[in-house]
């Protein structure tokens, strides 16, 4: 593990005292001041704000365009969708990153607990990975699969060794959406069937085919896109129709009561019954595939009953379909207990798609399947200009080495379990925290109006807590069908001290909201 934070420093990059990064002594809190505290100053004393852990990395001063100019260009020269997806009322202008930290153009430091949407797996500008990238840049940037270059074969072998037999054949892409597109194509070619099933609330990408797989209205357009894709009820044991206190593979269970006997899950039985009903009413007798994330990502870190995927895989195969695990967000050790999310469900998929953390933010994806299924792809010609290029493969190979050598999978288990356990204490304290769930560093905190109804906390309330958390120095994400879940998916190099800082910040943000309410 890289020890990047070891001493305290006061002056900011621009010669002024930085109230977020400076300290007067070795303490963990300081009195709040400024705009953040003005709302409550009349009725309440200034809150005691958590202090960000120390860091000895010195970022480069920003000397580029003004923030106003950057925002003007973003509004007028970038597609309007760019502004639509921009977080925060006052956007964060990022200048530099190092490991678990990001600095904005004013020199303010943030703890990054969203990792570029679960993408920066081993830390921003990780020194080992950066050195590998620089070395490869001086040797060969790009050529395509029409030639043989060592980096592709070396990485394919290394990646295949991390997957169980018979998942040993790799095809490289540039993104998770592209990987999922190709997975659908391969499934249809191999089975000779057309229909594909996904879970409600799932997200499998933004390309035309992937939006068909995706089951979330926010990512849909009013044009034909389903192309034989259907969805079944998501077995969400917190928000769904059925659930209990022993259903999921997580350090933290739901607050719902459970009357199941040991080793039996009634909720799982009911969700499987819904799947069977779908088979009987919605799709042909033969299907092409079933797609599922081992833990839903954009859907809000939703976890299923322990045997749900195992039972579903059996039913899908009886219908002639293959089973595809979308590991775009759960792969590469993020769930802690296993390198791949599907392993936590005790299943063996026929195909695995991956991206995001595969190359720590460098554009790359992959589809891994069996030799038999891969042969069906040869019925035509498919060419990918950038997939598996020398630079991408070199970076991805270094990521695998870093995960192993720095024990980041183990760190995901240790820090993630600690964080969830502490968050569960906040759930028990605050009525608006309905559920805490996840594995490793794939964590969701679902916010509700109250625990009895489990109705989602309204967007404006979510925004208040979200903005406060950012203002105190922590960046997190949001997800869920109703935007009601905070997503915590940091680089896997974060420490327990970082977790404590986040917990203090999040507690203060929730407390601020409760006082205002």
Automatic annotation (TrEMBL):
Its EC number is 2.6.1.18, 2.6.1.40, 2.6.1.44. Its cofactor is pyridoxal 5'-phosphate. Keywords: Aminotransferase, Mitochondrion, Pyridoxal phosphate, Transferase, Transit peptide. One of its GO terms (molecular function) is alanine-glyoxylate transaminase activity. InterPro entries: Aminotrans_3, Aminotrans_3_PPA_site, PyrdxlP-dep_Trfase, PyrdxlP-dep_Trfase_major, PyrdxlP-dep_Trfase_small. It catalyses: N(omega),N(omega)-dimethyl-L-arginine + glyoxylate = 5-(3,3-dimethylguanidino)-2-oxopentanoate + glycine; 2-oxopentanoate + N(omega),N(omega)-dimethyl-L-arginine = 5-(3,3-dimethylguanidino)-2-oxopentanoate + L-2-aminopentanoate; 2-oxohexanoate + N(omega),N(omega)-dimethyl-L-arginine = L-2-aminohexanoate + 5-(3,3-dimethylguanidino)-2-oxopentanoate; N(omega)-methyl-L-arginine + glyoxylate = 5-(3-methylguanidino)-2-oxopentanoate + glycine. PROSITE patterns: AA_TRANSFER_CLASS_3. GO terms for cellular component: mitochondrion. The keyword DNA-binding does not apply. GO terms for biological process: glyoxylate catabolic process; L-alanine catabolic process, by transamination. It is an enzyme of class 2 (transferase). Pfam families: Aminotran_3. It is found in: Mitochondrion. Multifunctional aminotransferase with a broad substrate specificity. Catalyzes the conversion of glyoxylate to glycine using alanine as the amino donor. Catalyzes metabolism of not L- but the D-isomer of D-beta-aminoisobutyric acid to generate 2-methyl-3-oxopropanoate and alanine. Catalyzes the transfer of the amino group from beta-alanine to pyruvate to yield L-alanine and 3-oxopropanoate. Can metabolize NG-monomethyl-L-arginine (NMMA), asymmetric NG,NG-dimethyl-L-arginine (ADMA) and symmetric NG,N'G-dimethyl-L-arginine (SDMA). Homotetramer. Belongs to the class-III pyridoxal-phosphate-dependent aminotransferase family. This is Alanine--glyoxylate aminotransferase 2, mitochondrial. It comes from Sinocyclocheilus anshuiensis. The gene is agxt2.
């Amino acid at each position: 593990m890289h020890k990047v934070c070891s001493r305290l420093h006061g002056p900011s990059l621009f010669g002024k005292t930085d109230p977020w990064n400076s300290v007067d002594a070795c303490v963990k809190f300081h009195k709040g001041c400024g705009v953040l505290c003005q709302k409550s100053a009349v009725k309440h004393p200034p809150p005691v704000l958590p202090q960000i852990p120390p860091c000895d990395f010195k970022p480069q001063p920003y000397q580029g365009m003004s923030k106003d100019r950057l925002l003007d260009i973003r509004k007028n020269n970038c597609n309007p969708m760019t502004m639509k997806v921009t977080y925060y009322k006052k956007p964060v202008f990022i200048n530099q990153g190092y490991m678990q930290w990001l600095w904005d153009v004013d020199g303010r430091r943030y703890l990054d607990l969203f990792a570029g949407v679960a993408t920066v797996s081993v830390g921003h500008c990780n020194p080992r990975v950066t050195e590998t990238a620089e070395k490869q840049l001086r040797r060969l940037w790009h050529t395509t699969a029409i030639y043989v270059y060592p980096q592709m074969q070396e990485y394919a072998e290394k990646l295949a060794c991390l997957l169980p037999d018979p998942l040993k054949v790799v095809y490289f892409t540039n993104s998770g959406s592209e990987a999922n597109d190709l997975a659908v194509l391969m499934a249809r070619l191999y089975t000779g069937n057309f229909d594909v099933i996904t879970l409600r609330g799932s997200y499998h990408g933004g390309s035309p085919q992937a939006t068909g797989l995706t089951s979330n209205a926010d990512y849909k357009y009013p044009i034909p896109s389903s192309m034989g894709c259907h969805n079944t009820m998501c077995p969400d044991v917190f928000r769904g129709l059925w659930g209990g206190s022993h259903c999921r593979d997580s350090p933290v269970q739901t607050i719902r009561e459970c009357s199941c006997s040991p080793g039996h899950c009634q909720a799982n039985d009911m969700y499987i019954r819904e799947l069977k009903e779908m088979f009987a009413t919605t799709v042909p007798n033969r299907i092409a595939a079933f797609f599922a994330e081992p833990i839903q990502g954009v859907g809000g870190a939703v976890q299923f009953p322990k045997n749900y995927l195992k039972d579903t895989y059996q039913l899908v195969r009886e219908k002639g379909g293959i089973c595809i695990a979308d590991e775009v967000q759960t792969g590469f050790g993020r769930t802690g207990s296993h390198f791949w999310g599907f392993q936590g469900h005790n299943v063996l998929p026929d195909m695995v798609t991956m991206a995001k953390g595969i190359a720590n933010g460098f554009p790359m994806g992959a589809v891994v399947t069996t030799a038999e299924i891969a042969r069906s792809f040869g019925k035509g010609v498919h060419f990918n200009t950038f997939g598996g290029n020398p630079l991408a493969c070199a970076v991805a190979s270094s990521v695998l080495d870093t995960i192993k050598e720095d024990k980041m999978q183990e760190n995901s288990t240790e820090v993630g379990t600690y964080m969830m356990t502490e968050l569960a204490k906040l759930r028990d304290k605050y009525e608006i925290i309905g559920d805490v769930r996840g594995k490793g560093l794939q964590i969701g905190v679902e916010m509700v109006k109250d625990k009895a109804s489990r109705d989602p906390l309204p967007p404006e309330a979510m925004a208040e807590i979200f903005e406060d958390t950012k203002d105190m120095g922590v960046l997190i994400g949001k997800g869920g069908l109703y935007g009601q879940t905070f997503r915590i998916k940091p680089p896997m190099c974060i420490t327990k001290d970082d977790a404590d800082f986040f917990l203090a910040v999040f507690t203060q943000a929730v407390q601020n909201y409760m006082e205002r309410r």
